[in-house]
Design a protein that fits this description.
mainly alpha, about 70% helix
Length: about 250
């Protein structure tokens, strides 16, 4: 489901189409000398704006799918890390090696000694600096889990007596699992970049000073007012069409 802010952008584009329809209906009376508000250019701007909004929606879907896939991939991490440590503890490994493994496991769990945390939920796509910051913090958490799980794997595999019969605890399986974590995390990073770039492109088309859809719509209203008058039914038609601009 689109967020309130995303819905606002789509509404601006839909309202711009309504404005174009009214201007087309004025026939030859709508004949501005300014190129940017002439009907062919208004129609082209509307098409570009529609495509830009669609691109954001597509990137948003890809972002959600990537974060969900990462969440699924990371769900087994914490119980698996604990099992790895327990398997090591059941070998002839030194107390010091087991202690180091337990320290890394606590880092994977994201907690102090004796305290655990739940896996993080996927972040929402960035649309404000605040959300960008939250995603940055969340990303660091995933990066940390990948790093510490990798260190844990290397540590236990350095112990010659660590030879578990359980397939999911064996060296080859752990390496495949670790590589998959890195791959799903990279997919989220790339999806975050894609949606951020799509929003930049959309905002340029909709809100760039003088050339964006928002400012062009205001110019159209001014022109209709100048042609038909402030109290005319034509001006009332276009003046009531609402366009909103995101707060910076």
């Amino acid at each position: 489901m689109a967020s309130t802010s995303e819905t606002g952008h789509a509404k601006n584009v839909a309202n711009f189409e309504d404005m174009i329809s009214f201007c087309t209906g004025y026939g030859g009376s709508y004949n501005p000398s300014k190129p940017t508000i002439q009907l062919p250019n208004l129609m082209a701007l509307h098409t570009n704006a529609q495509n830009a909004v669609a691109d954001v929606n597509s990137a948003n879907t890809a972002f959600i799918n990537a974060t969900n896939a990462r969440q699924i991939a990371f769900n087994p991490v914490k119980p698996l890390a604990t099992r790895i440590v327990n398997a090591l503890d059941a070998t002839d490994a030194s107390d010091e090696l087991v202690k180091d493994a337990k320290t890394l496991n606590r880092k994977v769990q994201g907690s102090r000694k004796g305290k655990g945390t739940q896996p993080e939920t996927p972040p929402t796509p960035p649309d404000t600096p605040t959300e960008d910051k939250k995603i940055s913090v969340s990303q660091q958490s995933y990066d940390s889990i990948i790093e510490n799980l990798g260190k844990l794997g290397e540590l236990v595999l350095s112990e010659p007596t660590y030879t578990p019969n359980e397939v999911d605890l064996q060296a080859a399986t752990l390496q495949i699992f670790h590589n998959n974590l890195k791959a799903t995390n990279t997919a989220v990073i790339n999806a975050t970049t894609a949606i951020s770039n799509a929003r930049i492109a959309r905002n340029q088309i909709l809100y760039a000073p003088k050339t964006g859809l928002y400012d062009i719509a205001q110019e159209v209203k001014k022109y209709v007012k100048s042609v038909f008058g402030a109290t005319s039914p034509q001006y009332k038609q276009v003046s009531k069409i609402k366009f909103t601009k995101p707060r910076k």
